[in-house]
Hints:
Radius of gyration: 24 Å
Number of helices: 17
Amino acid sequence: MAAQSNPLIDDSFVDFLLYSVLDAESLCELEAYQQHSKETFDLYLDSLRRFARQDLLPTYKPMDEEPPVFRDGRIHTHPALPRLFEQMVELGVLTASRPESVGGQQMPMLVNTLSSAYLMAANLSAYGFIGLTRGAAHLIEAFGTDEVKERFMTKMYEGEWTGTMALTEPQAGSSLGEIATSATPTDDGHYLIKGSKIFISGADHSITENVVNLALARIDGAPDGTKGISLFAVPRLREEGGSLVSNDVAVAGMIHKIGWKGLPSLAIEFGDEGDCHGWLVGEPNQGLRHMFQMMNAARISVGVNAAATASAAYHESLAYALERKQGRKLGTQGGEQVSIIEHADVRRMLLRQKAIVEGSLALLGTVSRYSDISEHGTSEEARERAGLLLNLLTPVAKTFPAERGFEANALALQIHGGYGYTSEYLPEAYLRDQKLNTLHEGTNAIHSMDLLGRQVMSKGGAPLRALAEEMGSTIARAREAGCDPELCTALEEAVATVASTTVELGQRGMAGDAEGMLGHSWDYLDMFATLVIGWQWLNMAAVARAEPVSEERKRATEAATQYWIRTEIPRISHLANLCRTNEDSYINAKAEWF
């Protein structure tokens, strides 16, 4: 097996993306990041690369083969996790992007995103405890009172306790307005929480002594639906008299998943004995708004997980294709067998994986940079424009790496042939892991409706106009750099097709025809994402021609750009036609027909 030599992600590509394409050094001119430089970025990036390859990767397969055990009411996770979690805390992973005021390094999200991808590629379950804890602590940082921050956030950011997001309930699923968990006020400043949660990752484990669940619940007498939901910090153990005691939070069962084996997914019960204390985070009845303020980061994180998993599988299959000898070149007879990379169809599968993986990483880097500018840009206009683009592209940054990443993982397995579906090789495990990313942080279908029904239509279409301007600038730069004119024209025509299709669908929505607008939202997202990845590749091709990069980098970038634009961009016309005609095979299908 080639696992131990797997680079996980191509370092030279990340450096090219970070510094040549996305100009991370220019972020150091912003006041928030003036303490940083290329040197500090590289130090952090290099430390995570080493840790991912030397420490995390060797633990991936053992954790996949030895999942957590539910015994005596507690979850017992893999024995390597406490050490790995502590090492990641010491490396600063938990607070890298957080402000210095809470003990963070205030690293740009762009740098943090691409650095964290190595950890996710090496062992996404181990990294998951870090990501969940940071997200939960960030909510408390943003909305908690000083007392709540002192009680929970400090210990979470220091790595003493971990955190979770406890949203989903058995009867509610993605319909958060149906949440039934209750919160009863007391005279002591806390609430009594009672209810059930399901699919809660990391809600119990044997890594740290305590877990803080950021849970949605409904205060007694609150309005029905989403308007009556509040956010609470609900620890597994609570502090009383200087020690930790049970907080009436119980594990009801463990979900047995196809992937992410090292990170337990649990059903938990709050308040079976009537003594579960929760502390309000933010304003009453504003819990969902508080949660969604943090959703961009969470959704981008799922996209990074997906791209990282696809990247690890891609490099696994590349190593196999270089080593495995089978068959002979077309047109030859006799002689020695050749490495399978000499076969055109294997190179097709490798190039498709590369286009998906590196196109995804480029998109995730781009949206992360928009996030940095939206928060810390030098002018209100710059911050607003970056915010528009961030919100518009976030559904794509979550869904494209997950959906197409699954395809890339399947190609990696295919390249391994019969060995691909055996557990002795890693592609089958990566394929299992990848599928979960299409479900995490909202299913892909939910994001398609968000993109078409909300994002592209917001503020009179301003986000779409801003994106068209960005793409127009890229096309002009690519032409000036000497990129293939046919590729530039193909992308330009695709921009126009997507824009006109969007306008037509938007007009239907404004006329009250919701089904006519959203009936093909999945096809719309597919069309939109295909265009966005084409834009990313043409941008990288233009940079590769204009910047002093190696001939290998230039040729590789041009090959992937040509592949994507010539094989995928033509699909946009077909998808646009499906959206415009509202092809009704499944729209009019009756339940009994199935």
